[in-house]
Amino acid sequence: MVNKVGLVLEGGGMRGMFTMGIVDLMCEQGIKVDGIVGVSAGACFGCNYKSHQPGRALRYNAALMSDPRYMSLRNWWRTGNLFDATFCYHTVPTEIDVFDIETFEKDPTAFHLVCTDIQTGKPVYRQLTHIDYEALEWIRATSSMPLVSKPILLDGKLLLDGGMVDSIPLQHTQQLGYDRNIVILTQPRGFRKKPSRLVPLFRLFMRKYPKVAEIMARRHNMYNAQLDYLYKEEQAGNVLLIFPDEPLHIRRTEKKPAELRRVYLTGRTQGEAYLEKIKTFLGTK
Question: To the nearest whole number, what is the mean pLDDT of the chain?
Answer without folding.
Answer: 96
